[in-house]
Write a structure and sequence with these properties.
Layout (H helix, E strand, L loop, with lengths): L7 H17 L5 H4 L8 H6 L8 E13 L3 E8 L17 E7 L12 E16 L2 E15 L23
Parallel strand pairs: 3-5
Antiparallel strand pairs: 1-2, 1-4, 2-3, 4-5
């Protein structure tokens, strides 16, 4: 066996470190993360959105509805705590709902119900709307950055490898 060329090992290690670092990177830019207060708890914001007006926040959850208006799009989100890489956890851990205000048009076919989103933005107040038989107070977050997570594919129940003889005969 030959000796590894000088410099090949450090190059391989540097490449590996870059790959690992990229895999652990947040989906929200560091510049925007520096502008938010990650210690803000959603339950506190929900209890009194006006008390947090003007503060930066990082929230996530599952899209309930996307509504386009003439100048902006409103995305209603079922909040979920953020976990690894700022990805929303399971829906059942939600503490409530919030609205993301996005300047311009957002395609509701992409931001459709059930999609996971992580958003960094500024708390700009509240919006009181009917939710069933009650009036619900939604904290409103004006988007600085938003990340929509790839859809999870369901587990396949059929085998990935098939063996067969002839047409339509398999075992």
């Amino acid at each position: 066996m030959g000796k590894m060329r000088d410099g090949a090992f450090p190059l391989c290690m540097a490449t590996l470190i870059l790959m690992v670092t990229a895999a652990c990177a947040s989906v929200i830019s560091q510049q925007v993360l520096d502008e938010v207060d990650e210690s803000l708890r959603f339950v506190d914001i929900l209890a009194d959105p006006d008390a947090y007006r003007g503060r930066g926040a990082l929230l996530g959850g599952y899209v309930i509805e996307t509504r386009n208006l003439p100048e902006k799009t409103l995305i209603l989100v079922l909040q979920s705590p953020l976990g690894y890489r700022k990805e929303p956890a399971v829906e059942s851990s939600s503490k409530g709902r919030f609205i993301v205000s996005v300047p311009g048009f957002i395609d509701p076919a992409i931001y459709r119900p059930g999609r996971k989103v992580t958003v960094a933005g500024t708390i700009t107040g509240k919006d009181v709307r009917p939710l069933g038989e009650v009036e619900y107070t939604y904290p409103v977050l004006t988007k600085k950055e938003i990340h929509i997570w790839p859809e999870e594919r369901s587990a396949r129940t059929e085998p990935r490898v098939r063996f067969g003889v002839g047409i339509g005969i398999g075992f």
